[in-house]
User: What shape does this take?
Amino acid sequence: MSDLQARLQAALGSAYHVERELGGGGMSRVFVAQEVELGRRVVVKVLPPEVAGGVNLDRFRREIQLAASLQHPHVVPLLTAGHQHELLYYTMPLIEGESLRAKLAREGALPVGDAVRILRDVVDALTYAHRHGVVHRDIKPDNVLVADHHAVVTDFGVAKAISESTGVSSLTSVGVALGTPAYMAPEQAAADPHADHRCDLYSVGVLAYEMLTGRPPFTGASPQQVLAAQVSEAAVPVTKHRATVPLGLAEAVMRCLEKNPADRWQTAEELLHLLEAMATPSGGTAPTAAVPGAPARMAQRVPVAVAAGVGVVLLGVIAFLMRARDAGGGATRVNCAQELDPGMVAAPEHLLELAAHVGDTAAVRELGARYLVLDSTGDLADFVRWRVAQALGDSAALSALRTRFERVGTRTLARIVGLAQVEGIGLDDAERALAVLVGRGEANPFLEAFYALNRGQPATATGALQQIEADWGPSMPIWLALFWDADTLAAQAAVARLSPLAEAPLARARAERLTQLETLCMIESWCVARGDLRTVDRGIATLRRAAAPVDSGADVETAHWCALTLETEAAVARNAPGAAAALDRLDSLLRTGPRFMDAGNLQVARLREARGDLAGALRAVRRRPFNWSQIILLSTYLREEGRLAALAGDRDAAIKAYGHYLALRSDPEPALVPEVERVRAELARLVGEQRSR
Assistant: This one.
């Protein structure tokens, strides 16, 4: 027994039996002990004397008590803390498993799926802790334990407790780190007293980088060299070390590693949503790209939706299953999707939405019943009830649901708002659902703004748009006027106001450069749309100069997409020899289905129409995902689909698209009444022609 172990046993007394010392404790010494009364094994961590001697015990206890209040599946709780015979210690449960450090030492870089699952658990823990005012300050592989395919985070609040109780915010004079150099955010390395929860997100980026590449982004011969690199050097992109890392994941990691906290993810919850999508079987670990026509910051933050290709695949699946039912295999439709997991609710839910979309009421009844057998009280159960009642025209069920909208969960209400627009049904329910969300302070400003814009009420959208302008950037009025019936005078004023910013030399700081590139993209798009090509070539050249490492991968990709779109628009406007090839290239890139439904396919449709290719224009404008959350620009797409279908001679499709558009815009604001009435007159003409056939 070591001298410290003997001293610890004396300090703990008969309440604990200290069994042995563990290695890998960082700045503390770690022991395994048996808590005699409860018969459980715990870990006891003992701080070194040079730290313990300078601790203000009252402050230390206050911080430890705050950390000990955390109760979460991915947080290893603090049990007790004490100070006896010059020993400062704290205890926590013994987790059967291994540290992430040991796993990385044994395996090196991890499979992408394993890395994403571990990251999701770590960020889930941080989301909870940050919400309760606790910042970890020392996220690293040693403080992440992996057991039974799950990760838990240990030592929450300890670094803060030591910092607050000693007055030391970075490194002590004797070299004890409060935080670990290889994982410390630049503001921690600089001992910035204003460092906040975003330092944990930087450390998460380092952790993710190491899991994906087998090494942290910065190494050096001494801690001082590593700290200097954290402050002054840009990390080499993840994909330079491992090209197979999905682009979306690589960009998320590199965003964590931004030097300026304002350029990182602003909350752990924001990052968690992305990781949860990636960690699910249908998640987004495939490479993704930002798409032209939408500001880059909007592309980063608009909720992820199912891609168009997935909707097509599911429609094929349900068609196949319906044929099986018609052949006598009625149970096949559900069972083949649930044989792997009988408790899986996603399969009947998705198939229900598709069955309702194609009007198969028998399938709707069966799938709705199957879902509610599996989950009758979950947060989407009421949405399923609403969807079934809408599909079946069950007015009694709808009336019953409406009486308790105030008590319905947030996810159900949001889905009703979204799906009512996508399908053009139950819009009165969508209005009620959104009002409840707004009244409860739970309305997503994107959902609120997009709903109002689709309904033809841009003035109503003003408040929500002001909330999201920081994400969208100052060029938002231009984009809205180009693609979503917004005020052209406001757009012209924005062009005049922002032109000096767009024409100035690109700034060195990433945030300022991004704003300049977005603004330049929108101003040139505005000018080209009005036939003004005087500055487009210069704008394209500037957008092409966006490059790593000054700009993030997402920023570079967005700038280059915009440059490609402007090049194509200019070539078509000039009737240049390469115009057809340029348009085919842009069309081909968008044909795979953009991750976010933005204006890209609208632009292609306009260019195809300008070249006399109505069929190609109609194909482009129909490329939009089938998903409840995919409502951005929906009214514009529907109006354009109706117009192009009518021109192409597809009367039935034109009637359907125009009818959907008019259902959305049943009560437009005065400025949009003439356009709505024009569509109404065109629809009446098409219906009259149809009846006279």
Remarks:
- Residues 165-178, 281-335 have pLDDT under 50 and may be disordered.
- DSSP finds 34 helices and eight strands in the chain.
- The radius of gyration is 29 Å.
